[in-house]
Amino acid sequence: xxxxxAPVQEAAxxxxxxxxxxxRRYRNGRPPLHPSADAEELRRLFDRGLPEQxxxxxxxxxxxxxxxxxxxxxNTQAGFFAWVMGGSHPAGVAADWLTSAWGQxxxxxxxxxxxxxxxxxxxxxxxxxxxLPRESSVGFTTGATMAGFICLAAARGEVLRRLxxxxxxxxxxxxxxxxxxxxxxxHASNFAVLxxxxxxxxxxxxxPTDDQGxxxxxxxxxxxxxxxxxxxxxxxxxxxxxxxxxxxxxxxxxAARHGSWxxxxxxxxxxxxxxxxxxxQCRGVERAHSWAVDGHKWLQVPYDSxxxxxxxxxxxxxxxxxxxxxxxxxxxxxxxxTHFGPELSRRARxxxxxxxxxxxxxxxxxxxxxxxxxxxxxxxxxxxxxxGIRVENAVCLNQVVLSFHGESATGSASGHHADAVxxxxxxxxxxxxxxxxxRGRRVLRVSVIxxxxxxxxxxxxxxxxxxxxxxxxx
Length: 474
Description:
Layout: H1 8-28, H2 39-46, H3 57-68, H4 90-102, H5 113-130, E1 137-141, H6 144-162, H7 167-170, E2 179-183, H8 188-196, E3 204-207, H9 217-226, E4 231-236, H10 248-258, E5 261-265, E6 290-294, E7 306-310, H11 313-320, H12 350-383, E8 389-391, E9 399-404, H13 417-427, E10 434-438, E11 441-447, H14 455-473
Parallel strand pairs: 2-3, 2-4, 4-5, 5-6
Antiparallel strand pairs: 1-7, 6-7, 8-9, 9-11, 10-11
């Protein structure tokens, strides 16, 4: 359809209203949890050909909506339990809309004083909320993967600097060996970013874990005695499957004794520090040297959002700083965001973070984490006595791991039961589940993380799991 021409500013406002209409319709309705189109159909919808002439922006937005919606996943809804992905709170979405409309590049203070100051203030609040050392620096980035990259880049430079090796001057040629002491069950992103930083398998000293994925600190102590040279210890707050926490107090003691850098992957588990009765699980976290955490998980900021937090701000800045004559800086300027991350052209992520910290407040965030823990416990308790279903983890946060045992009606092996249960649940259209392989078992992973999920919806999911299993096992 064609629209009458209008002055540029009026047309721009109108197309923004048009996009907002589609966004409101999507969020206020009940969109499908699962994509309705396969890859071939989505390619057909998107690949309209590159036009010679520009098109009416209203038609473009309509075509984008028509092409995208059949391929969207409903992770903003209460029935989404597949991965640890937040649900994009409306206040964060609204702030993110404004961020796009304002069109700021948040690289340096002078590019956008508002963006730089929003990050500066939000960083201060994050340190208060997570109760981490207040002198720490915070880099606003895409998520915990890039946050880990930033933190471990600071770690690499600092442990080498302590040996008298100037990485900035010498590069990676003839660099002393750095040992990376890392859990066998560390999140895959940690191994990825370490490789991005030039570390390989010979650097990795893999530390065994218990049946919950918790790092064996006695094995780490033995490895630290055995290996020579500088070390970086990577541990986690919130195991990706079980939700378990590594023993941070003894790990911090070991790091201090051996002069090693202690980094914590706290993508979602670090938010447990906001809940007074759950904070004990994170005791000792504050003694680490760096922390990676997501904002698009329990802070419910729209994708993408993550925080690289480093106790030694100088080490952080040495690893990330970008300087040039044309990157203006005056004495009265505030914080330059590009000192703490690798992007010179980047989104103003601090606006949405600032908005969500204000919208939820300390108590709102704590209540959400507490509620999701209650949801996970409700699911586990409901299913604990169901014949053939085993809860594989001690539910300490928001994760439930389920395995299924026994002959099915079709005689299929128990290894396929989790897949069959997930398929049955997904076919209802009420839920979105995925399976995983963990410790030699095929399991159904239940992750409670979206702000829309409450105890009632969690119990509904547990009842559906039980019913699906009984039908398969009958």
